[in-house]
Amino acid sequence: MSNIVNEEVEKYIRETLQDKEGLLKELEVYAAEYNVPIVHKEVSDLLKVLLKVQKPKSILEVGCAIGYSSILFSTATQGKVKIITVERNETMIERAKENFKKSGFEENITLLEGDAEELLKSVEGSFDMIFLDAAKGQYQLFYDLVIDKLKVGGLLISDNILYKGMIADDSLVMRRKKTIVKRMRNYLDYICNCDYLSTSLIPIGDGVALSYKEKERTEK
Predict the structure, then answer these.
(1) What separation in angstroms does the CA of 201 have from each of 24, 56, 64, 101?
(2) Is 220 inside a domain boundary?
(3) Which of 87, 72, 73, 88 is nearest to 25 (CA)?
(4) Quick check: is 96 in a domain?
(5) Are 185 and 135 contacting, i.e. CB atoms less than 8 angstroms apart?
(6) E strands, 133-196, where?
(7) What would the pLDDT profile of 147-200 be if each residue is shown by its tens digit?
(8) How many domains in the chain?
(9) DSSP H or E run through 12
(10) Residue 2 lies in a domain
(11) Packing angle of the helix pair 68-76, 41-54 (nearest 10 deg)
């Protein structure tokens, strides 16, 4: 139970959506068994629809884990997208590399290994879509490093923004998570109120923010 929607609704949605096949299904089973964070089933289907609408040619992903989202992006676009993804955990990196080879999309995906804060500074070029799915307390930091790399008309997707409901309800906040919750609330307040983004907050999975870039930002 995610505390985002009631358990019956969540169960119904996940049972109604089609199951993945092949490697994506294998990765879902692996993630469940080893407690690896990947996007929720209903979020993965939302991402597939967004990819078909947006038709991005380039994606920057912050937080690779075992490579599930990168492979999902590649599958949904039939390999017509170039992806740069960032991961610091060595175990995840090795697993992701293996999965990229299995997927057949290895040539489309560039995996940068190390600390995202340092690596993102050196990423060059511009992107049609940016996907934030890394340390939740660092979203504003990552945002400031990547938003100018997002093209006007591009889409920023921030996952897990309701953080098991804690962002919306103080009664759910665990003491050791207070700093993360405060930072995420500040992040959401910013992306919902800055004049160069149009943002929607969607209560599915663990919460998703969709931000359309209307124009370049002027303040830094």
Answers:
(1) 26, 21, 22, 34
(2) no
(3) 72
(4) yes
(5) no
(6) 150-159
(7) 999 999 999 999 999 999 999 999 999 999 999 999 999 999 999 999 999 999
(8) 1
(9) helix 7-16
(10) no
(11) 40
Sheet holding 127-132, edge to edge: 109-113, 82-87, 58-62, 127-132, 150-159, 208-213, 197-202
The token pair that represents 145 in the structure block: 């490093």
Give residue 59's identity as a one-letter amino acid code.
I
- Give 76's DSSP letter: H
Q: Tell me how far apart the alpha carbons of residues 114 and 45 are, in angstroms, rounded to a whole number.
A: 29
DSSP run (H or E) holding 127 = strand 127-132
**What phi and psi values does residue 126 have, to the nearest 5 degrees?**
-125, 160
218 part of a folded domain = no
- Domain carrying residue 114: 7-213
- Which CATH number does the domain housing residue 201 bear? 3.40.50.150
pLDDT digits (tens, 9 = 90+) for 200-212: 999 999 999 999 9
